[in-house]
Amino acid sequence: MGKLSDVPDMQRVMEKSIRNSARKHYSDEQIDALTQSYKEQYNDFILNTQFEVVIAEHRDRISGFGAIDYQYSSINSLFVHPEFMGQGIGESILKKLENMAKEWFCDGLMVFASINAAGFYEKYGYTEIRNVDIETPDGRFVPSVLMSKEFEGCKFTLPIPDGMVEFRSDF
CB neighbours (10 Å) of residue 58? Predict the structure, then answer.
């Protein structure tokens, strides 16, 4: 589980991951807005009991991490450092987050996936609900894909608070 001292390394992993994998799908301005938005959240991930963080390490270095938001039954983050992509780290983190969710509330999970990450989630049973624009704290809108996964034997209802996203039909 994550510690406050992990935050700077988490921020570095997130930024390298986004800049490496999202550049085909997002403008530089959108990438800057995304990275800044996530950086502002990481202390909350560690300090707030609404979140739980899973960290993968390789030789005492953070190779990836994920965060689950229990209040909204959602995956808030899942990033793997580019040096470690394609080695099963993302899958391991996702499975750990799903197991934690099952222990906590059972129904399922949702994720606002970046366009470049939607295929990853789809591979592990998440289904696309619709395209959405996520507003960053600086007022920019970033296209994303709202996805969900219902755990076996459960009925999952999306817990989306009013005003959290702007829905639209296409990018």
Answer: 13
How far is Cα 133 from Cα 148, in angstroms, rounded to an integer? 16
83 contacts 95 by C-beta, under 8 angstroms: no
68 has which bridge partners?
A: 52, 75
Alpha carbon dihedral 42, 48, 49, 52, in 10-degree steps, equals 0
- For the whole model, what pTM was predicted? 0.85
The model's pLDDT over 84-122, given as tens digits with 9 standing for 90+, comes to 999 999 999 999 999 998 888 668 899 999 999 999 999
Task: Report pLDDT digits (tens) over 34-46.
Answer: 888 887 777 777 7
User: pLDDT value at position 104?
Assistant: 80
* Distances, alpha carbon 106 to alpha carbons 17, 36, 98, 102, in Å: 29, 32, 9, 4
State the residue for tokens 């591979």: 123
List CB contacts of 41: < 8 A, sequence separation 6 or more. Answer: 76, 77
Confirm if 66 and 13 have CB atoms less than 8 A apart.
no
**Residue 6 to residue 4: CA distance in whole angstroms:** 5
Closest CA to 90 of 47, 54, 135, 37: 54
